[in-house]
């Protein structure tokens, strides 16, 4: 069989990890020594290979010499072949079958949709636990073939593959714990439920950047479909428009982490309102949008929820409101406290035998107040003495003798008194 044209895996490996390009590193599995090599072989006497090989964007199209791969890669556990030109699953199989301890394989952005994956080739992936097929446009038939041959697969990445539907596998994959299927076009919840059927042990489901619409599923059905789901990511699910969709997340019996940013439902709320309303509606979650929900925050959010809905018409009040009223009782509305500094006060102005109530601005200085009082008391500012009497102060009036001092610094309040006296000559 003719070797495909292009750069081989082994050729790139020798170039990148030769002693000239990759200094020798001490430690187990870091240097592999092969004492005798065939005449003219590209293999050096020693390649300094780590257990994690990163060969992305190297133009790889084929495997190369399988004996050399086996000789050098016996200790390799992780292999990144993303952004290469591998289009034949048979060539990928040649590589993987000669890396016996491989657990992580990244085949993202290789044109592998151009060939069919046969089961005998997929069998070489048997030991892989984490498989990345992002932007490979791998068909569901390819995915099903892989699932049947990877009994220990725990994490699967299927992002950017233009999926609009999900095709159910003929067999369940009991081992899969994490499915990363972002940036596709999965809109209908009937497609998502197929994932629950295929992966009954799923712990983490990442569905961000799909156009997911309303969750059309009964609570009992959701619990059966995703009995072990602990974490779900629904970022930018453009079709989620109602709170009932959020409430249905409570149907997952083990759910404790939720990510919900960029959905239309939440756009009209402030950041604080979004978080508190979500926490109050999802009583079992311990982490929201990546942040831990503390016990104190949960109680604050639930009390906020009660007050938020207490003025709504009865037909618009969610069931969760009644649950929380049972828990905390009916709460009084929070008092509205204006924490802005007071800008003016009403004081009693005393001059000779006259008393006049007047309003004064607190942002002005003593000198400015004197100018304002000139026409009232018929004294020049230079011939005017001011005294301030705090109604609760035990020490009597205080002379306001610093012209540049602001009135608010005296702590003047409504009902206090200001005395005006002429300066003694």
TrEMBL record:
<feature type="domain" description="Ubiquitin-like">
    <location>
        <begin position="352"/>
        <end position="421"/>
    </location>
</feature>
<keyword id="KW-0963">Cytoplasm</keyword>
<keyword id="KW-0677">Repeat</keyword>
<dbReference type="InterPro" id="IPR001611">
    <property type="entry name" value="Leu-rich_rpt"/>
</dbReference>
<dbReference type="InterPro" id="IPR032675">
    <property type="entry name" value="LRR_dom_sf"/>
</dbReference>
<protein>
    <recommendedName>
        <fullName>Leucine-rich repeat-containing protein 51</fullName>
    </recommendedName>
</protein>
<dbReference type="InterPro" id="IPR000626">
    <property type="entry name" value="Ubiquitin-like_dom"/>
</dbReference>
<keyword id="KW-0433">Leucine-rich repeat</keyword>
<comment type="function">
    <text>Acts as a regulator of tubulin stability.</text>
</comment>
<dbReference type="InterPro" id="IPR047991">
    <property type="entry name" value="TBCEL_Ubl"/>
</dbReference>
<keyword id="KW-0175">Coiled coil</keyword>
<keyword id="KW-0597">Phosphoprotein</keyword>
<dbReference type="GO" id="GO:0005856">
    <property type="term" value="C:cytoskeleton"/>
</dbReference>
<keyword id="KW-0206">Cytoskeleton</keyword>
<dbReference type="InterPro" id="IPR029071">
    <property type="entry name" value="Ubiquitin-like_domsf"/>
</dbReference>
<dbReference type="Pfam" id="PF14560">
    <property type="entry name" value="Ubiquitin_2"/>
</dbReference>
